[in-house]
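Hi,

I'm pasting everything inline rather than attaching a file, because the server keeps stripping attachments. The sequence lines come first, and each chain or strand is labelled.
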Amino acid sequence: MMRHKPLTRACLLAVGLAVATGPAVAGAGHNHNTNVAQAKTSEITIGAQPVAGKITMLIGVGGFSGGNVAVLPGPDGLLIVDDKLEAFSEKLTTALMPFGDGVPKFVLNTHWHFDHTGGNKRFAEAVIIAHDNVRKHMAVDQDFKALNKTIPASPPEALPDVTYNDRMTVHFNGEEIQLLHLPGGHTDGDTVVYFKTSNVLHLGDLFFNGMFPFVDVAHGGSALTLARNIRDITGRFPADAKIIPGHGSLATMADLEAYLDMLTSTTMFVQSAVMEGKDLKAIQVQGFPEQWKKWEWPFISQAMWIDLIHQSLNK
Ligand SMILES: [Zn+2]
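And the predicted assembly:
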């Protein structure tokens, strides 16, 4: 039911995040990231994986390059979902060349995080579309306490040009692209992108495939709402839809259901422990039942995930 992630991928991802973002997140009791050598940007490549219909996924190979990208090529031009870390803008442009001229006409951002919007500056000529709160956060400096870092405001040309509140549809290259805002899961500005014609979802960071997710509690995210939103998605879209996660390998609805199972069980576990009067430290020392431990990876240790759930309960 649950697929094992190759350990190397999770490690590289985490190491990359640590380097890309400065100081590593200190999950209480765990701090795997600090002593691991990081793959150099020059050694990391961007690979293309056909998904279904007209959609291709671009994924970092050999290290962390930012979130996964969806590409929709066609006679109208290029549309992409998310555009990785800024340091990979050049490589992303090169990776887009086989699909056209490497210059997208549309960029959709699933949320404001810099590992999903880093290429906006490079692709400023495109029409950039995102939820209202994405532009709001990107327009000003953000105190990102979870990463011990201030994320500087993006220049005006990198901000979304078109923002929406609840839902919107884009028609491009013969594809119907549905954007649906599900509030309060990973952040307060998450968009689910559904390529209806090709039957492909891009879930942004609502979905870390096979790994405990990061939840940006300071920007409106909540582990409990995330679990609700994932349940909503499993009921709303076709069972045979292919799924591009924010991080991790290409997925199916079965993978998303395994993730939902983990979210539901681990959030309930922390909730029950709190109701029994245990404090955060005691829950972290106790740890999850054995079956959930394999979802840990260096960036989000078990202790960190317990902390994120605990913070979500106290919101
Ligand atoms: Zn994110």
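Residues 7-313 form a domain with the Metallo-beta-lactamase; Chain A fold (CATH 3.60.15.10).

If the labels don't parse on your end, tell me and I'll reformat.
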